[in-house]
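ok trying this again, last paste got cut off
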Amino acid sequence: FIAFISIGDGGRKCMALLKMANYLNATTFSVLLLADAALPAWAAGGPRYEEVFQGVACDERGEIAYVEEHRMIYEDGRPHHNETHYLDASGQEIAVLISRFTTHPYVPNYSFQDRRFGRQDGTFVDGAWVKIYSRSDQEAPVQQDMLRLEEGMVTSQGLHIYLRDHLAELAEGHAVKQARFLVPLEGRDFMFHIRRLDKFRESDTVAFSIEGNSEFWWLFAPKLEVHYDLETRRLLSCQGASNLLDADHKIQNVTTTYHYTDEESARPLVCSARIAGIDRYMPLL
């Protein structure tokens, strides 16, 4: 979830996007991400600190699908940039996601690469436009387009920042929030709704269901459930379609539990699955 939902490559033919004569290629996007130094007022100067945490993603069999290693940098209390490294169960790095929130809090300039398959995607905000690129695998050409930056648009790790910023309002549960999730691999955005889940309601935590309202979204990623700590606004867990495909290049559903390095009592990093009434636990590494 702290990454993003990658639906796939099947809906590109139905795009109706503005075509440009000369697009930035994937390499240029990466250079721009690293060179991006123009900070808005809230990110200029002030205290700087980092938050280090780990996510353990377990598949539907209760086995470790992968591990997320996060390093989020804050300036003046706002997210500045985040580095996420994905490791397989043996500790081998398989993917990397770099996000910068200096131009837009919810539509970050990001670059994602799955090193197993050569899968790539990313965005770069340029004024009122979002430049996007994607490649489904190492044999496929890089697809590039531009979309207008719409009100209520989010993408990638910007969804997590959006939820944290609106956590108190969403926790009240009086209204259903609506936003637009941009998926570069599909070259378009999808409307989705955020609803509070009362069945998981506790005094110190809150859970939400994130659901798309299009047939295409429902086919590939029908629902995502996320749990937050109300006091710290930290993400505790999420369940739904992963941004990482499985070894067969198929979408996988995972449950990811997050652990923070400054927690007083660290929880064991394991996966568990109930099979025939028996709990089965697997150590992380």
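PB: full thing came through this time. The longest strand covers residues 64-75.
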